[in-house]
Amino acid sequence: MDDAPVAIAAASVGGGGGLVAVGGADGTVWILDAATGTPRGTTSLPGGLLGLAFSPGGEHLALTGPAGYGLWRAADGRTVLRKGQRWSARARWASADRVAVADGRTAVVLNDEAHELWRTEPAPSTVTDLAWLRDGRRLAVTAYNGVRCHERHRADPVASYSYTGSHLAVAASPNGRWICTGNQDSSIHIWRTRDAAELTMSGYPGKVSRVVFDDSGRWLAADGAPEATVWDFAGKGPEGREPRMLRAHEAITALAWRPGGAAVLATGGTEGTLAVWNAASCTPGRPHTPGARWELDDEITAVTWAGPALLLAALPGPHRMSSSRAETCRMVVCRGCCCGTSRKHPGIDHDGQLDLLRQTRDHHGRKVPVLISTCLGPCAEGSIIVVHPSGAGRRRGARPLWLGLLNDDEALGLLTLWVADGGPGVAPMPAALELHRIHPAGLRRTRP
What we know:
This protein has helices at about 350-360, 390-395, 410-420, 430-435, and strands spanning about 5-15, 15-25, 30-35, 40-45, 50-55, 60-65, 70-75, 80-85, 90-95, 100-105, 105-110, 115-120, 130-135, 140-145, 145-150, 160, 165-170, 180-185, 190, 195-200, 210-215, 220, 225-230, 245, 250-255, 265-270, 275-280, 285-290, 290-295, 300-305, 310-315, 330-335, 370-375, 385-390, 400-405. The protein is mainly beta. It is globular and about 55 Å long. It starts with a strand and ends in a 14-residue tail after the last helix.
């Protein structure tokens, strides 16, 4: 790929085969045969890509991004696009012919031809995540201040679960008993659906942006710390229990449970480690090392399973994940709740600034990847950009560099020149950029 992969998805297909989709930050998506890597098709989403989701049988692929969403069909390679200016963070399939897609402050449910079946009422803010309950009859929608559950033919939410703050991710147990959110305030909030009883798991050193149940519904994995944490929801739930703590990363970038409910979890990190764990065999409250691990060439950006026997990981740059090295650094640009908006920073051409960053090339003419992220956290500074070092920079000890308040063209120009020269660990950082350097809270190594 010419751009850094930001999303990867896999699906089993009848006859024992499978498909894998890998999408870049620029919106380009490759669909491959899972067993051989043979290309099966390509598509793209104008405005960039945030996420990918296959339908259960692999007949369709949902694409979501900062400027809309689309639906690709395996039978003929056709893509139906729904473009606009509304942020589409996530897509979740209820069945082979129904998918829910975040669409700005609402969620829309589509059939397999991308025709709208129904839409939720507007949430208090942009929808950040979705989850299906009750065998696809009820849709949980998370945004600012909690989770609202919707059903078709009901104008108002059928259930609401409130918790003040910014909710970044939602997970519902397969039996519908639990709803959990990962939050900007460095916590996991949990509701028992039958009586709305609440529980908060706090003390994480950073925001919790990933929460994922395994297929059995017993185990919940979360990021928010250098260790992945796994909570046990058996019996009465996690109250009074300590989590399993899985230690292998500087910071977690991906979580994926192996299909089948065997408590096997794959994790990826910024340092390039891909790890696999059997969570059920770990002792609560104690840090554990993985059962298997691979040290790859660069930060892992996404992880997925293509069936129970094939684990896939995406890395930046146009290379195989285990054989070559990323030769350019890359930039991650915050476009979450307030960064890049005229509401917080009026009078600035935010789209033009993003285009400027995307034009950056190094002195060999290679494109510098620019990834779009949801909220990165230090909202007081705003206009956050994280510069990740190249493979050469990492070998010299460089680590991701956080910059804030990058609102003027002069600072962005200095940034693009520095990145073109090689960035962290390769080229000296301009003194003027030091004024924009920030140290985000929540990256210290502390146990939750």
